[in-house]
Amino acid sequence: MSDEKPEFGYGQGRRPLWSERDRDAERVRDILRGAGLVEFGDTPPGFVVEGGRASKPFLVAYAGPGRDAAMEVAAYSRALTGAGLRVEPDADDDQTLRVWLPA
Q1: Which of 1, 6, 50, 98 sits a CA distance of 20 to 30 A from 16?
Q2: What integer pLDDT is reported at residue 36 of this predicted model?
Q3: How many domains is the chain built from?
Q4: Could you tell me if residue 2 is inside a domain?
């Protein structure tokens, strides 16, 4: 077993944060959880955070029934913009937001 520890520590659930991208994705998750929103996992539905590599935006998506999507995505947008992040709808998927952290 390796003694190597993630450079940026651990996120919720002991998720290892090996890179700046991992750290920044966890920051997005923290903002959403802090707003009382549920992360997809053991208790779906909820949000997922993907992407964020090579200066591309993070994708924050709702993973659940389509009937709830608009309300959930709007809540994600409010939480993230309230925390100072840039948020735009994804033109290809109405259940997904494109998210950039401040520079």
Answers
A1: 98
A2: 94
A3: 1
A4: no
